[in-house]
Amino acid sequence: MKEKSTVVYMLINTQAGKEREVVKEAKKFPGITEAKVVYGEYDVIIRIELNDFSILSETVTLIRKISGITKTVTLISA
Predict the structure, then answer these.
(1) If you ran DSSP here, which 8-state letter would residue 78 be given?
(2) Closest Cα to residue 9, out of 34, 41, 40, 30?
(3) What is the set of domains in the chain, with CATH numbers?
(4) Residue 66 and residue 22 in contact, taking contact as beta carbons nearer than 8 Å
(5) What CA–CA distances, in Å, run from 48 to 15, 16, 23?
(6) Of 72, 71, 78, 77, whose CA–CA distance to 10 is shortest?
(7) pLDDT digits (tens, 9 = 90+) for 41-75
(8) What distance in Å separates the CA atoms of residue 31 and residue 33, rounded to the nearest whole number?
(9) What gap in Å lies between CA 16 and CA 13, rounded to an integer?
(10) Residue 17: CB partners within 8 Å, gap ≥ 6?
(11) C-alpha–C-alpha distance, residues 8 and 47, integer Å
């Protein structure tokens, strides 16, 4: 039986002009399936797919440490 993966989205605000740098750095982390600059209330959206839910906290913490990030909102899909 295939283990079900958890899909997580992070909505991110960055310092002005840091959007593309944040995307580039985020793509280096395992589990990141997409990272895109977006326009609107948030600057970047990241899609994370994890087979082990227990590493979610560690992954989110590492992403939040990327230089230029000012705020994150984490959404876990049902």
Answers:
(1) -
(2) 34
(3) 6-76 (3.30.70.920)
(4) yes
(5) 22, 24, 13
(6) 72
(7) 999 999 999 988 888 999 999 999 999 999 999 99
(8) 6
(9) 9
(10) none
(11) 6
Q: Strand, helix or coil at 70?
A: strand
Report the chain's terminal Cα–Cα distance, integer Å: 20
pTM of the prediction?
A: 0.90
- Helix (H) / strand (E) containing 20: helix 19-26
CA distance 52 to 54: 5
Q: How many C-beta atoms lie closer than 10 Å to residue 78's C-beta? A: 4
Question: Whose CA is closest to 46, among 18, 17, 67, 75?
Answer: 75
Question: From CA 69, how far away is CA 48, in angstroms rounded?
Answer: 17
Pair 58, 12: CB distance under 8 Å? no
Place of tokens 């991110």: 12
For the chain, the C-alpha Rg in angstroms (whole number) is 12
